[in-house]
Amino acid sequence: MVVGVLAPWSALGLNTKLREVFRWKQLDYEFPTEEARQAAIQSGNFIQEHNLPLGIEVWNDKVFITVPRWRPGVPSSLNWVPINGEESPKLRPYPDWKFNEVQGNGTQKVVNTFRVRADVCDRLWVIDCGLVDILGQAKPIWSTKLLVFDLKSDTLIRSYTLKESDTRPKSFFANVVVDVTPDDCENAHAYLPDLGSNALVVYSWAENDSWRVKHHYFHFDPLFGDFNIGGVNFQWTDGIFGVALSPVLADGYRKLYFHPLSSINEFVVSTKIVKNKTIASDSYHAYKLLGNRGADSQATASFLDESSGVVFYTQVNKNAVGCWNSYAFPDNYSPLTNAIVAADNETMVFPNDLKVDRNSNLWVLTDRLPTFMYKRLDTKDVNFRVLMAPVQEAIKGTVCEAPKFYRYQF
């Protein structure tokens, strides 16, 4: 990542579809007591301006919010707030404070997580990169781990450390996607994009094993590594990042849609390929280029809503959220079949993560990350937001609102 000169803002867009659920000027936490909060401030365990929300997930009455340990002073990386909470709720550590403490020698802890995923079996999957102070000294606490919690009991039910063969010196894991059906919870797979060294790590719950998958399409595109967001120009070289899954097809597998962050292209491969450790890296032509989204359409996270077939994705250079209907246009991925759901150069600066909940509501977290990384956030301004809209309202009036007779039958 290389920071450049300041860049002008683009023309102001206006979001009229996504309603604001939460907003923060700065994050705060629900400490046990005010004395505990003051002690955390005095000790440097809580430096408020170093806390930025990044990942979001929704399960029942909980909205999970991750806070990466970019810099010192983040007291808890995995958190939640009530879905019907206050406008600027204080974050509650998940499952508790002790689990989020970096100090000490405990083996059960969340060191640093960026994105999480709640599956249909009521489990929360957490990818923990194990590094703290990433923008400073980048101190490793432990190797990258996959942590899985039972959401009904708030207990850790599995901790898996990625194997040495899964990683490389520049590996960095900031996303986790789960492939499972509610009637076969023991046959789950997690897909872990390695954006730093251009690979996909696949984890099997049943085998409690993982393997690294390589392909040219996992690499960033050097023509699309330049970003201009919120008045900051910078260059990133992030590889495979966004991953979205189709429903289970007739052959028992899904389509795995993916893209590097520094790219405008979208690719697809059957999970039949990546689930097979013996052929996953040796089936070059099984991976297909779908098409591209058009200029300045670099995206972080993506998510497919099975009820509509719409793949939603962030549009970080446009301060927007985009969409493509995989049912209506299964073989047609282009600027004409992609659309902007919502855009706003004030309330949607750097949409970082998004999810669709079980009730087909689209949730988006925006956080002005480039300003946080390369300049300084104005603590008097609203910097972080969670936005939401029902999927059908979000896609209304766009090409993603395809008539039912266009929809591809699986």
Describe this structure in words.
This protein is mainly beta and 410 residues long. The chain has one domain (2-406): Neuraminidase (6 Propeller). It contains four helices and 29 strands. It has helices at residues 34-43, 271-274, 369-374, 391-395; strands spanning 2-6, 19-24, 56-59, 62-66, 78-82, 92-93, 113-118, 123-128, 131-132, 139-140, 145-150, 155-161, 177-179, 189-194, 199-204, 209-213, 226-229, 232-235, 240-245, 255-260, 265-270, 288-292, 302-305, 310-315, 320-325, 338-343, 351-356, 361-366, 384-390. The strands form eight sheets. It has a four-stranded antiparallel sheet. Strands 3-4-5-6 form a four-stranded antiparallel sheet, with no helix packed on it. A hairpin with a 4-residue loop joins strand 11 (145-150) and strand 12. The chain is globular and about 60 Å long. The model is unreliable at 1-12 (pLDDT under 50).
